[in-house]
Design goal:
13-stranded antiparallel beta sheet, Porin, globular, about 290 residues, alpha+beta
């Protein structure tokens, strides 16, 4: 059976996870995920790194892009230390470099850019025509329905309550995936209300942007992490934040994969508010290595 934490508890847990402890000037400790086992979720490390960078900026400039490289898997048994380097401070833009460390070794390098808000020329790609979230079933419901098929060693992870609600437009089969076009559409949001803290909304979107992305490049090949036939890991993560948004309101995450090869898969994502605004774009390359 899946756990029974309330939405408020799940939101509070994620908010705490992204509340960085300042242990010295430009040096932060990231909270550990309660109950986390094994490898740290990559979205957590990137989101915590962004929060560390945002703490060093002040309120005038806003994060508009980040580029991160994963070097080593994070370990849930140890805290993560984040060092912020103030590489550039201009009138309109600022740049922060963040090194995430565990046990004296870097596990992630990230560079984030910040801009003083200004107006300019505008255009955007149109939002895909997909069903609204109210007409779709949640991934939580879909997982509960197939829980008897989940191997015992994966069941706790597969069924645990999550702070991010996802409603896929075309649910995938975790156990017997059929080859399909490398395109996915899902609505997502945090499961409860958030305070009016734009930096927290940006960090939570960064956390969630690592979900469903790497799986896109596996769709044409009929494999998933549940089949036991493929080894996967994120290699990098890039995010561009275009427009203001709230992550306690529904956002559409549309992903595609134009290429895979050489044990790597490339994935892109577009994130829309339900009013049609393109609020963020994502890109990621990941390891997809077939097991012998």
């Amino acid at each position: 059976m899946s756990d029974q934490k309330s939405p408020a508890d799940l939101v509070a847990q994620l908010t705490t996870l992204l509340d960085m402890e300042e242990i010295d000037t430009d040096l932060y400790r990231g909270p550990r995920n309660p109950g986390g086992i094994g490898r740290v979720f990559g979205g957590q490390v990137v989101a915590q790194a962004l929060q560390a960078a945002q703490r060093s900026i002040g309120d005038d400039k806003i994060a508009h892009s980040l580029h991160a490289y994963f070097m080593r898997p994070g370990d849930e048994d140890h805290p993560i230390i984040y060092r912020v380097v103030r590489d550039f401070e201009g009138r309109s833009f600022a740049n922060r470099r963040v090194i995430a460390m565990q046990k004296g070794q870097p596990i992630l390098n990230m560079t984030a850019s910040f801009q003083l808000p200004s107006e300019g020329l505008h255009h955007q790609e149109k939002m895909p025509d997909v069903p609204m979230p109210e007409t779709l079933r949640s991934e939580r419901e879909l997982r509960d329905e197939v829980q008897e098929q989940v191997p015992e060693k994966f069941r706790r992870f597969f069924l645990r309550a999550r702070p991010i609600e996802i409603r896929p437009v075309a649910p995938r089969n975790w156990f017997r995936p059929e080859p399909s076009e490398p395109v996915q559409h899902s609505w997502f949001r945090v499961v409860g209300p958030l305070p009016n803290d734009p930096a927290l909304h940006r960090a939570m979107l960064t956390y969630a942007s690592d979900m469903a992305l790497l799986g896109t490049c596996m769709l044409p090949h009929g494999v998933s992490w549940m089949t036991g036939k493929v080894q996967t890991a994120s290699l990098d993560h890039a995010l561009w934040l275009h427009e203001p948004f709230r992550f306690d309101e529904w956002l559409l995450y549309s992903t595609d994969s134009p290429w895979s090869g050489h044990s790597r898969g490339f994935n892109r994502g577009r994130i829309y508010a339900r009013d049609g605004r393109l609020v963020a774009s994502v890109a990621q390359e990941g390891l997809i290595r077939l097991k012998g």
